[in-house]
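User: Design a sequence. Structure:
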């Protein structure tokens, strides 16, 4: 993890309900509301240093919400554990 202290702080914030581990890329009033997130469900940008436009990110958010599966969140967290302290 980049910053162990921040990772612990983030874990506490998630446990007390102030934040969520996984969230959307861009705000969208038509999707279910989530708390502020530690990381976005789309890790494509951070892993590949690409920038996707807001329209693409919004469509990815819609798909994420529509086909939500908590196991996918577990996969995202485990594959991005180094970013949990950001």
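Assistant: Done.
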């Amino acid at each position: 993890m980049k910053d162990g202290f921040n990772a612990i702080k983030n874990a506490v914030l998630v446990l007390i309900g102030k934040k969520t581990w996984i969230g959307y890329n861009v705000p969208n009033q038509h999707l279910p509301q989530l708390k502020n997130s530690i990381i976005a469900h789309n890790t494509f940008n951070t892993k590949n240093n690409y920038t996707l436009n807001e329209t693409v990110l919004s469509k990815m958010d819609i798909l994420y919400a529509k086909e939500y599966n908590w196991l996918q969140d577990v996969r995202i967290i485990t594959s991005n554990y180094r970013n949990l302290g950001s």
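The beta strands are 19-23, 36-40. The longest helix spans residues 54-66.
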